[in-house]
Amino acid sequence: NSYFKIAVLPGDGIGPEVVSESIKVLDAVAEVFQCQFKYSYGLMGAEAIFKTGDPLPDETLKICKDSDAVLFGAIGDPVFDNNPEAKVRPEQGLLKLRKELGLYANIRPLKTFPSLIDKSPLKREIIEGTDIQIFRELVSGIYFGEKFTDPDGKYAYDVCKYSTEEIIPIAHMAFQEAEKRKKKLTLVDKANVLDTSRLWRKTCQKIASQYPDVQLEYLFVDNAAMQLILNPKQFDVILTENMFGDIISDEASVIGGSIGLLPSASIGEENALFEPIHGSYPQAKGKGIANPVASILSTAMMLDYLELPEAADKLRRAVEHAIENGYVTVDLNTEQHYSTSEVGSFIADYI
Amino acid sequence: NSYFKIAVLPGDGIGPEVVSESIKVLDAVAEVFQCQFKYSYGLMGAEAIFKTGDPLPDETLKICKDSDAVLFGAIGDPVFDNNPEAKVRPEQGLLKLRKELGLYANIRPLKTFPSLIDKSPLKREIIEGTDIQIFRELVSGIYFGEKFTDPDGKYAYDVCKYSTEEIIPIAHMAFQEAEKRKKKLTLVDKANVLDTSRLWRKTCQKIASQYPDVQLEYLFVDNAAMQLILNPKQFDVILTENMFGDIISDEASVIGGSIGLLPSASIGEENALFEPIHGSYPQAKGKGIANPVASILSTAMMLDYLELPEAADKLRRAVEHAIENGYVTVDLNTEQHYSTSEVGSFIADYI
Ligand SMILES: CC(C)[C@H](C(=O)O)[C@@H](O)C(=O)O
Ligand SMILES: CC(C)[C@H](C(=O)O)[C@@H](O)C(=O)O
What we know:
CATH topology of the largest domain in chain A: Isopropylmalate Dehydrogenase
Shape of chain A: globular
Largest interface: A-B, 61 and 61 residues
Bound molecules: 3-isopropylmalic acid
Number of strands of chain A: 12
Oligomer: homodimer
Mean pLDDT of chain A: 95
CATH superfamily of the largest domain in chain A: Isopropylmalate Dehydrogenase
Enzyme class (chains A, B): oxidoreductase
Order of helices and strands of chain A: EHEHHEHHEHEEEHEHEHEHEEHHH
Number of domains of chain A: 2
Protein name (chains A, B): 3-isopropylmalate dehydrogenase
Largest sheet of chain A: 10 strands, mixed
Strand content of chain A: 15-25%
CATH architecture of the largest domain in chain A: 3-Layer(aba) Sandwich
Catalytic activity (chains A, B): (2R,3S)-3-isopropylmalate + NAD(+) = 4-methyl-2-oxopentanoate + CO2 + NADH
Number of helices of chain A: 13
Low-confidence stretches of chain A: none
GO cellular component, one term (chains A, B): cytosol
Organism (chains A, B): Chryseobacterium shigense
């Protein structure tokens, strides 16, 4: 199969700018690797609220369900962040999309780029050689459990609920990834306090026997938050629930020195979505200074998912080439830097 | 008042070793500052389970309720950590104690010691001058909400619940502390997803008008986990709910380079408990290598609470003196180091 339907959701803030560089790069891939991408654009997030009142219009959902993969930019707008009373919020669109597409596994690879190591707030000897893959459960837990605020505003609650059925698929995915790598899987939880965490532990313990080569370790989330900074190299594959994954994976993103480089994939049984982990970064919107690399590397993850591993590798090499040769945006070099679109073009040309 | 009843709970692992250095130091304080401390010892944690079957025997709770302040060591034992099925666990004792004593505010000051800055995994320019005070709500939220595991082990849940009554007292405490400091308060939450977080935001927003000098800022917990590492100096006082506080404050503890230095206070209307933030560190038990400084600095927080500010200051100066002059345990200097008890004696002698 060499024909792919790609749903493109540029979203808010710098989303449109970085996504259009990904499209530029995909067009180059199509030419070189003899395949075809058909793009269908959809509204999403604050943009969608402004235009339709709905952060995830039905039309957008339809386009996504119909696609082979979704390329997503970013979501969020200060208009909503500064108003805790807002009833309709951009984030609801993203959460609904994850749920509707069944994107149960959010995957974030973390590696350091040799030429950028000194940009990290952490010391070189702590981070050099870090290579972590984080698996975060994405469609359950406290994000999707029952929520309630009493009408008088006196109390509120959020329920964190997990079933073994929700844990098993992502646990297998993480074990399988660990098998292909350094064979170490760390489950991050709070099993000394939470029933749901104990369910995660028991479920993973059972599954472990099917992966005798993989060493399964447990780490309390508070300790994990320390260990990620004290010694990130100790980790290979990390598996965790939705809320802990949100915190831990953003924390881990500081290791490499720029969040503008980090891609992610959200995978389900029938759909998949690819997005940079940076947010909408509204201050930079329209200035041509956003780093397109995270979006472009997310596109590489998409190519892997579409079973075009050679194209994915080529794209990653192109990115490395750009970085090693100083074709970077201002976040990576304040003296000598290029615009979002120049960096995108350089990468596309290399392909 | 110069007579104080101190409940002493040495607990597990290295707890007894570090607490006995605090007692040594307190004895010196009593002599110099003309006051009296009466110590009552209680069993707690794994030790208490082994001896009585109960991680918090009634006798211990009684001693604590009866005291002016509680000095606590550490809790936890690998026997329980490695057994997710254990019905009785050391941590239950600590959680029950917090609840029974109404210790709603866990306070953790974070400062860097000039002579130890290079021990941090973070770069000097990132951390030098960091001075943060974290207020973590300690007796509600997902720790104490309803928990359930279905008998077939197919699903489980934990409820995170907050009432405005639970938020208001600690919010005032944090605002008041910010007023005395750099007048900046950061509320860490996940208000784009959780109802409880939106309740925290609204409640703090209301209270803010009583503290016109304090600038109240909001930060999503995932972003906070990044910002603490990227630029810890941006923070003054941080306020957050129980689970986020557990993660964020342990994460922040890596900044200074040694968790063996960090104290904490847990404060309620009528009781207060002081403990080092490091855990029971079972591998070091009985070896005389544990760093007593965190426990001793917790004792300084206790002296402040008992309204003995001069004694507290003297104690802090003694600790600084010990560190600046190299009277430290092996975690801070692998070449030239002293035992737990030698460091404690040095600090006591200085007083
Ligand atoms: C925007 C927000 C709802 C989202 C989340 O918390 O999942 C984001 O932080 C992320 O990690 O993708
Ligand atoms: C031991 C554990 C229950 C406890 C907590 O999570 O509160 C500890 O991590 C702490 O922070 O004091």
